[in-house]
Amino acid sequence: MNPGSNARQTPSFAWKGQNSQGQLHQGKLHALNADLARAHLRRQGLQHIQVNRLWWDTTPKVRPKDLSAMTRQLAALLRAGIPLLQSLNMLSRSMTSPGLVQTLRDVQEDVEAGLSLHTALAKHSQHFSGLYVHMVQAGESAGILDVMMERLSLTLEKNEALRSKIRSALMYPSAVLSVAIGILVMILVFVVPVFQDVFKSFGAELPWATQIVVGLSDALVHFGPLLLITLMVAFWFAQRPSDSRDRLRQWTARWLLRWPVVGPLITTSVVARWGQTLSALLSAGVPLTEALGPTAQACDHPVFARWTLQFQRRVAQGGSLSEAMGQNGRFPAMIVQLCAIGEETGALESLLARAAALMETEMDDQVNGLSSLLEPLIIVVLGGFIGAILVAMYLPIFRLGQAF
Question: Which of 197, 354, 368, 369 lies 20 to 30 A from 314 at CA?
């Protein structure tokens, strides 16, 4: 499984176990298999562990927006001097997300049992990423948890803003494309067969353009349901964690990076999020070798996650981050140069934050340009398809009129 993969893509397990005082604990976690789940629980000091695979995980989803709001509220409560347990209790009562409420209650119980906050959060890896856990751990170690929660909420908000910009830019073209494809399918399924009955009464050979459209209509009418079922089954299998699925995701991600317009946009977005995350971890006091792991997870892109883990190994062996990035050749030259300057001057976190801000500005320009380009392009192309189908349908009628 790729480190950048989301936890919800891994199998879910329900577990029960006892701590060193003999108290019973239970919950859910995500792991590649049952053995890894048991090993993870044993590292937390649990004994007599029972693990059962959940084939249908009904855990309520937690939106990034809700998680960011909860983090900012927790930072405000801690800054106001309210104890951690009381703050968690207040948050569990005020949150509206069912999944987040249950998670906060579980975290509160673990903290009451003597666990540190970051250890309690690590049990819920489907909601709290490595970035989240590492920054909380740094805040607890330094005694500045409120400051770290404030920085964490700001980082989460920036990362979500980057994703929101991409979604907003693609929302209108996607809606236009979906409506146009729906109209195209309706014409082929319902309108073309009516014309086909009329054409049969002519008794003449149809033009090649009309024959192509009629052939598409027949194929869609006869094999459309089977194709739909096949796509649904394929989509279901694509959601199941497997090595082949991860290889397909890697291949798709690399393929999209080669596109002339989409590739640079994806690169800019991921690198901006990469820089923001790494800067936040470094400013929290997390060593570079440890910070690169959560950064790989937070960039949410399998190719960049794999590259970041390669950087982590190089840095752990005594290499330079900027040298590893330069040899990779896929990161923009600007951020590589700023990383080199930051490593020489000891200001890597501030220069990474500046680079991320520059990349975000560049992404805004790319998104605006892509939006203005995609909307008319989709309308022209799909309008041309629909117009070609209509012309092909009326072409035999025009020829029949010329015969008389």
Answer: 354
